[in-house]
Protein 1
Amino acid sequence: MTQKSRHRFTAFTTLYFHFFVLILLILFFQSTAMAQKSAALNVEKLAVSFSIIDNNYQNKNQALAKFSLTNNGKKILPATGWKIYFNIKSMISLENTADGLVIKKQTGNLFELSPTAAFTGIKPGRSYSTQMITDRIINKNDQPEGFYLVWNNEPTKEYTIKNLTINKPAL
């Protein structure tokens, strides 16, 4: 074998080696992405419940409500990495700000519910509840609606929470 043909053989072998490594890297990252996707909670198994506890809370024109998030899936809702958005026409706040969730007004009637460092996630078959204060809930127009989850690593993709229960106040 001449030196010229040996050089061509080495260059050809190096090219195939790099191509092989590239294919392995693509397969590795694709399988990692698929594993992360399959490890994520199925949002269709997430349920939201909003129930009025007292529609004249502290003898004021405000309501105390119980907000519950139930994980009916097989995977944990993680302690971080997500936000739930919803619409409600009045201001809303948490009764106890140390219980693991925080509510922020985004714009107009849009609010964001997100976990704090105190939140530990929701295991399959378990629920997490907190109390919220809002203006009195008189009719359907006053109730929260349009709940959807956004994963922090997919900020442009919304997952609608379809399993929603709103318990109307006794008037």
Protein 2
Amino acid sequence: MSKKFIFEGYVTWAKLFPENMDKADFHMEKGDGAYTCNFYFKNEEDIQKLIDAGMPESQLGYDTFREPEEFMDDDSNKYMKLKRYHKGPFLTDEGVDIYGGPPVVYDHTDGPSSTEWDFEAQGPLGNGTEVKVILELWSTKRGKGVRLLEVAVIDQVSFNPEDVEVLSLAG
């Protein structure tokens, strides 16, 4: 049995679209890539809602809810890493992958809407973009898991690739 939650907050390092999917080796091996972000809770009470529903405060030696990254302002609450594999672990009897693929991302910059975010026209989500998310807490054989279902962009912070320092040892 699963339980769904809607939370407001901010994202950093958002790779939520096929165009900017996380293709790190370990994500590619497990799910052909992953859609990932760090989600900062707007309210500490929301973290407690997840804990009360059975979400462990740490898993596999890592804190589930982590202290803010250095560049976030001093008022930032804790964050959790959210991930959704490109190819999910299960298929329906009809062969449909209902757990994989990108989360649906909606454009709520002018208020609630069913209009999906257009990556090509509107671009990626920069650090500090304000969002609402729907998370599903569900039981696995190793404990509780969280699945990112939907994202609604409320206030986009533009991503500027020139702000990212690229280091390379390539000759």
